Amino acid sequence: GAVVSQHPSRVICKSGTSVKIECRSLDFQATTMFWYRQFPKQSLMLMATSNEGSKATYEQGVEKDKFLINHASLTLSTLTVTSAHPEDSSFYICSAARTSGGRGDTQYFGPGTRLTVL
Amino acid sequence: EDQVTQSPEALRLQEGESSSLNCSYTVSGLRGLFWYRQDPGKGPEFLFTLYSAGEEKEKERLKATLTKKESFLHITAPKPEDSATYLCAVQAGSNTGKLIFGQGTTLQVKP
What we know:
Structural class of chain B: mainly beta
Helix content of chain A: under 10%
Distance between the termini of chain B: 41 Å
Structural class of chain A: mainly beta
Helix content of chain B: under 10%
Order of helices and strands of chain B: EEEEEEEEEEE
Oligomer: heterodimer
Largest sheet of chain B: 6 strands, mixed
Order of helices and strands of chain A: EEEEEEEEEEE
Shape of chain A: globular
Distance between the termini of chain A: 38 Å
Number of strands of chain A: 11
Number of strands of chain B: 11
Radius of gyration of chain A: 14 Å
């Protein structure tokens, strides 16, 4: 199988605090992980690409100083939402890419983290 | 510009009524086309990867097919538990690994 876990599954925090979300690939190594954000009844919006051992690549319009990404090992990437505000409330989903020998890599998704900022 | 369009946006079926979901794409150098199922409040669940035109894959009541311009997800004799949003995504030849998602088709199967 290809299992990806996320922790926590839901978090409620006060405005101005920072929140860390962990993404782990449990049964395979992932050189590349991705972080998405999803608003109600919309498709996934890619925030950043996380590469093990190097800096993350952020999509246009995503503030890298607000959404800190660390990919310290081949099985763990973290997303820290710094100084969270109510507009950061959303469903955050990570994925881990499993290589397929030169063809398109399949991304396996975590269960998501529901962030609510009061 | 790489683009993915899914149709219909929403589909209501009676249990046992077979149908197909469409995913049309334009991409520079297709590296893979992916189908996912997403239940409310959960992350997408991987269903299929298709790499080249003519390829087909099956899993239980689902069958995915691929041409040079589109992919179909056929659902045979659906059950209420097949109700979900089905997402189609493509990976372009730029090799960044990014997925370009369609807006999804929300399927409701009534008993």
